[in-house]
């Protein structure tokens, strides 16, 4: 213990200096800015080949060829550059996981099956190295989601800028996250012999899955009953007072269909089960994962269930699937008229690769304009913040990036970024190491 205490004391100055540097980075004030002579990709409208974007008090106040600078604005010369809205990854655990091999830096799951009262916003680390790395590549917003159990907890929508979770939060309690019960039949792979076996036959697997679905159904109904009892007690003082229940209380707005539920599901059978379950329980579903969504397009469209695709760069799920089955998933949803967004689905270090997921979809049948929309405006709309984020429109939050090329191309660099109208210093561990070693003597 003594040695551990000494080690911690030795580490504290370094940790403090790193944290202080990050705070200094994220305390930049809002200022009036005018980006001029740039190519402007609004996402929601036509591309403006030469125009300006004006920012004031954290909002976009003018966009277009005739836009003028606000009084006292800092001028950013956009000649040869392109202006985009910041990108939005709608299914991550960014800020909840730092180093996957160090358990003390992981805070994304609670013990137990039903934890609607677990709130991701409480556990977000605003000084995570992943925040700086991610926004250096033009991603300005993420949905951070808890994991573990059947009801994992509540996701939060973040700006990737701020010294505290409260400063970063766009919508602290944005959606409920549910790992929808699926058929568990074990599986192959190199470590099959060391893995705990699943049910021995299909009937047992189905029964096990059905029991878990029934447990989920039961707790949702309990939340509805809890809400009715609370309402009745509030109206009639003669009724016994209902004991406060933080689990049912946090679950109530989702059980009533007032707020969205993010259902994780990949396979066709599970996706169909999610759609049926959400309709039965009058929930507001959003499908997360959706590797087999292209097989269920008719039902997804008919029931107006949006999909957040997280497997665009993954290998096919089955040996007999085409090699490009997941590359083409987004294009097939687009063609079928299903609302969707593209996500990395990553815990943090690779959320920065979001534009390349969209770029791969664009290389396999998706129009590049639709691919860009799938990582900007579409995720914002799906998560209910389309009036604030996702496009360059007057009145929206000034989350703006300026690049030297097509944002979907790996060779493109982000030259400037603004989040909530605040200028972001585009440095990270990657750029720090580059500067440190670029002059190294060979």
Keywords:
442 residues; alpha/beta; Urease, subunit C, domain 1; TIM Barrel; eight-stranded mixed sheet; 13 helices; globular; disordered N terminus
Account of the protein in words:
This protein is α/β, with parallel strands linked by helices. It folds into two domains: 112 residues, Urease, subunit C, domain 1, CATH 2.30.40.10; 272 residues, Metal-dependent hydrolases (TIM Barrel), CATH 3.20.20. Helix content is 32%, strand content 21%. Strands 1, 2, 3, 4, 5, 14, 15 and 16 form an eight-stranded mixed beta sheet that branches. An eight-stranded mixed beta sheet has the order 6-7-8-9-10-11-12-13. Strand 1 and strand 2 form a beta hairpin. Helix 5 packs across helix 6. The longest helix has 34 residues.
């Amino acid at each position: 213990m003594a040695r551990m205490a000494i080690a911690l004391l030795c580490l504290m100055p370094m940790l403090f200096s790193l944290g202080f540097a990050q705070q200094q980075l994220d305390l930049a004030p809002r200022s009036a800015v005018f980006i001029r002579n740039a190519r402007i990709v609004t996402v929601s409208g036509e591309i403006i080949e030469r125009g300006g974007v004006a920012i004031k008090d954290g909002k976009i106040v003018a966009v277009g060829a005739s836009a003028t600078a606000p009084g006292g604005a800092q001028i950013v010369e956009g000649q040869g550059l392109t202006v985009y809205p910041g990108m939005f990854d709608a299914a991550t655990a960014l800020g909840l996981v730092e180093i996957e091999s160090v358990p003390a830096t992981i805070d994304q799951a609670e013990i137990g099956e039903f934890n609607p009262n677990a709130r991701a916003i409480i556990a977000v680390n605003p000084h995570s190295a992943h925040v700086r790395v991610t926004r250096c590549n033009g991603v300005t917003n993420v949905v951070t989601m808890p994991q573990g159990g059947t009801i994992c907890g509540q996701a939060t929508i973040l700006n990737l800028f701020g010294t505290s979770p409260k400063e970063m939060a766009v919508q602290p309690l944005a959606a409920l996250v549910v790992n929808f019960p699926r058929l568990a039949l074990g599986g192959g792979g190199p470590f099959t012999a060391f893995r705990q076996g699943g049910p021995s036959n299909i009937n047992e697997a189905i029964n096990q899955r059905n029991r878990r679905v029934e447990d989920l159904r039961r707790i949702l109904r309990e939340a509805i009953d809890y809400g009715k009892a609370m309402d009745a007690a509030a109206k009639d003082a003669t009724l016994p007072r209902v004991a406060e229940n933080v689990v049912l209380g946090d679950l109530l707005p989702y059980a009533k269909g007032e707020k969205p539920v993010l259902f994780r599901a990949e396979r066709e059978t599970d996706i169909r089960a999610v759609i049926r379950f959400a309709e039965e329980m009058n929930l507001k579903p959003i499908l997360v994962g959706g590797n087999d969504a292209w097989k269920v397009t008719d039902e997804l469209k008919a029931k107006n269930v949006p999909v957040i695709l997280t497997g665009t760069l993954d290998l096919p799920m089955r040996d007999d699937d085409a090699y490009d089955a997941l590359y083409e998933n987004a294009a097939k949803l687009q063609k079928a008229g299903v609302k969707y967004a593209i996500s990395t689905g990553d815990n943090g270090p690779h959320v920065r690769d979001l534009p390349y997921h969209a770029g791969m979809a664009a290389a396999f049948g998706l129009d590049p304009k639709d691919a860009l929309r799938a990582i900007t405006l579409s995720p914002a709309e799906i998560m209910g913040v389309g009036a604030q984020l996702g496009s360059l429109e007057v009145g929206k939050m000034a989350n703006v990036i300026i690049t030297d090329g097509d944002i979907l191309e790996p060779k493109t660099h982000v030259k400037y970024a603004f989040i909530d109208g605040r200028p972001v210093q585009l440095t990270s561990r990657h750029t720090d190491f580059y500067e440190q070693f670029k002059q190294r003597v060979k």
